[in-house]
Amino acid sequence: MASEFFDKVYKVVRLIPEGKVTTYGHIARFLGETRSARVVGYAMNASHNDSSIPAHRVVNRSGVLTGKHFFTGSTLMQDLLESEGIKVIEDQVQSFESHLWNPIDHLDQEPFIDNIIG
DNA sequence: CACCTGACTGAAT
DNA sequence: AATTCAGCCAGGT
After folding, report:
1. Based on the structure, what is the number of domains in chain A?
2. CATH code for position A87
3. Could you tell me the distance in Å between the CA of residue A37 and the C1' of nucleotide C10?
4. Which of A31, A43, A67, A72 shows the smallest number of beta carbons within 10 Å?
């Protein structure tokens, strides 16, 4: 059962393009809850069952795959990212900033984002 | 019903 | 520069 906040988190995560990643903090900030980054992570945990949510594209602010332990197998999260063209070494996304997709940067370009904030 | 914990982060010390 | 603290939400004990 997802709260309104969780629901928004899921919608944002689903918008992350292939080959891109974003962070818990960016999502939280985008939703106007800068300090709820932790809850974003918790939302991902809660959404663990929903395969439509590309949780592997969400990493922490350093580009580290903090949530990989929650994926089946020890390297699935990394494999998924690498299959999208993102190189990962020791749980750390390489060229992290160049792969970073910040939803806030797309506020003007992505009309459907308005639906999320609603 | 009170307390603890967790895929985090920015500010304060 | 490194470490600690507080804040956020939901679910479990």
Report:
1. 1
2. 1.10.10.10
3. 14
4. A72
- Closest-approach nucleotide to residue A2, Cα vs C1': C10
β-pair partners for A92: A64, A89
Q: Is residue A105 part of a domain?
A: no
pLDDT in tens, chain A (118 residues): 568 899 999 999 999 999 999 999 999 999 989 999 999 999 999 998 888 999 999 999 999 999 999 999 989 999 999 999 999 999 999 999 999 999 999 988 877 777 787 6
Instruction: Check: CB of residue A116 under 8 Å from CB of residue A12.
Output: yes
pTM of the model: 0.93
Nucleotide nearest to A27 (CA to C1'): B8
